[in-house]
């Protein structure tokens, strides 16, 4: 299988699929056009849908993809109500989150340190519900774990002040953040059941990790699409 993980969810409007890629694909901005283009072509072939990317800016902007979409918008969450569109949330240690509603509305969210602190996942859930989504479920993809994500004490305090569940300690005893715990807490508070997929990006060398590989790190992706 091309993807690290893939599952399908029956919805009233067809079938939604959720997937996460691994290091066999590089969807990063620094990948050569050839590598990134090949990765996108693989996603398109595997999903049978048109891949849509966003220019991720660590904010809380939610962008609704419809037929008029052309360039990657500045956003950290993509939503759509339409079939044939594969939404991608890219990450290398941040948390990719996929949302699926019973009616087939879908979302892909990039939740990094700032996204968790500012509540991008909650914003995406709220916008989906404004669009009429009910029966939401979430898949939380591979990300850096709380035992690996070392941050300065001030930063831990700042993020944990907003989302207490993020407060953590590294395996070597220094201040850390558990972004996954923060996302799971935000989903629980919003009443969205979640499934966790994959391990720690820094520890699992089959995954892309910024903390392990630095600026050369590639990007994995959460991918969600509906087949009519
Ligand atoms: Zn770890």
Summarize the structure.
By secondary structure, the protein is α+β, with helices and mostly antiparallel strands. Helices cover 25% and strands 28% of the residues.
Describe the structure.
- Helix content is 25%, strand content 28%.
- The longest helix is centred in the N-terminal third of the chain and has 15 residues, at 33-47.
- It has one domain (5-227): CNF1/YfiH-like putative cysteine hydrolases (4-Layer Sandwich), CATH 3.60.140.
- The protein has 228 residues and is an alpha+beta fold.
- The protein contains six helices and 13 strands.
- The mean pLDDT is 95.
- The strands form three sheets. A six-stranded mixed beta sheet has the order 4-5-8-7-9-12. A five-stranded mixed beta sheet has the order 1-2-13-6-3. A two-stranded antiparallel ribbon has the order 10-11.
- The structure holds zinc ion.
- Zinc ion (ZN) binds at residues 144-145, 147-148, 200, 202-203.
- Residues 144-145, 147-148, 200, 202-203 line the site of zinc ion.
**CATH superfamily, please?**
CNF1/YfiH-like putative cysteine hydrolases
> How do the strands line up in the largest sheet?
4-5-8-7-9-12
Give the proportion of residues in helices: 25-40%
For the report, how would you describe the main beta sheet? 6 strands, mixed
What's the CATH class label? Alpha Beta
Count of DSSP-assigned helices:
6
CATH architecture: 4-Layer Sandwich
- Count of domains: 1
Structural class: alpha+beta
List low-confidence stretches. none
Q: What would you report as the Rg, rounded to the nearest angstrom?
A: 16 Å
Cofactors and ligands = zinc ion
What is the fold-level CATH name, i.e. the topology? CNF1/YfiH-like putative cysteine hydrolases
Number of strands: 13
Query: What pattern of helices and strands is seen along the backbone?
Result: EEHEEEEEEHHEHEEHEHE
N- to C-terminal distance: 22 Å
Q: How confident is the prediction overall: mean pLDDT?
A: 95
- The 3D shape can be described as globular
